[in-house]
Amino acid sequence: MLAKYFMTKHRIWIGAHTSAAGGVHNALLEGQEIGASSIQLFTSNQKQWHGRTFSEEEIALWEKALEKTGIDKIMSHSSYLINLGSPDKAILIKSRKAIQDELMRCHRLGISYLNFHPGAATKGTAEQCLDTIVESLLDLESLVSQGPTQLVLETTAGQGTSVGHCFEEIGSIVSRVSSRLNVGVCIDTCHIFSAGYDIRTRAGWESTLKAFDKAIGLQYLAAFHLNDSQKELGSRVDRHASLGKGAIGLEAFQFLMESQITAHLPKYLETPEGPSVWKEEIALLKKWGEER
After folding, report:
1. Where are the domains of the chain?
2. According to the 3-state scheme, what is the secondary structure of the chain?
3. Which class does domain 3-291 fall in?
């Protein structure tokens, strides 16, 4: 069933969520320092509703750093404040404006992916939340078509009233917007493990990918966030750990680098120990990928 997605040759895209402090171009330079071939970044302060705009000088520095580093398949992570499924009208209006602004920044920088958490029901139902997310995304149709950036829904751990912790909920969104939007899915390894998908072994990953294919479709799998988990399987708690230092273990990440289904997809570390450890983790992941 999964054979049609096999890839035999690929570039290895591995990176981490690097810092854009002092200018977005610095995220690329930090990526180069840790041996990354791709990066994730915040294009604006993730804790503020009002986003930044870029000057011509900032764009020039970004483009120069792109040329210098050779980094591509870049992912922007949207603001944590955004809730595209909010039942609160004021929050929903702010969220829709913020995602529009973020998408325009991504287009301006030529960023490949805009990653976002689907949303949270808060005082509404999960079904109402999913419906509102679909409406929010379809409002972006015209803007999405104006640039290269793909919208990417991130799987969640299922904390609180957040939706997207099961593949069926993500699939419900994707199936209703994919005919009109360039949309994909980012699997966060910590999140899906905390949500109950056992990815500790190769057999576990194969079962999980089959479940993803059935509920969403592997053609929509765009990227991975690589994180071990401080919490146990099915905890519904999102606490990242460095690779091999949590409840998931290294075998899961080696599988992703060796599998013909997943090896070619970009992967971004969000592990908590920072650049010095990211450098070691990237080297290990690349080693596995090159040995396959």
Report:
1. 3-291
2. CCHHHCCCCCCCCEEEECCCCCCCHHHHHHHHHCCCCCCEECCCCCCCCCCCCCCHHHHHHHHHHHHHHCCCCCEEECCCCCCCCCCCHHHHHHHHHHHHHHHHHHHHHCCCEEEECCEECCCCCHHHHHHHHHHHHHCCHHHHCCCCCEEEEECCCCCCCEECCCHHHHHHHHHHHCCCCCEEEEEEHHHHHHHCCCCCCHHHHHHHHHHHHHHCCHHHEEEEEECEECCCCCCCCCCEECCCCCCCCHHHHHHHHHCCCCCCCCEEECCCCCHHHHHHHHHHHHHHHHHC
3. alpha beta
Of the listed ranges 47-51, 205-209, 246-250, the one predicted with least confidence: 47-51
Q: What predicted TM-score, i.e. pTM, was given to this entire model?
A: 0.95
For residue 51, name the pLDDT band (cuts at 50, 70, 90): confident
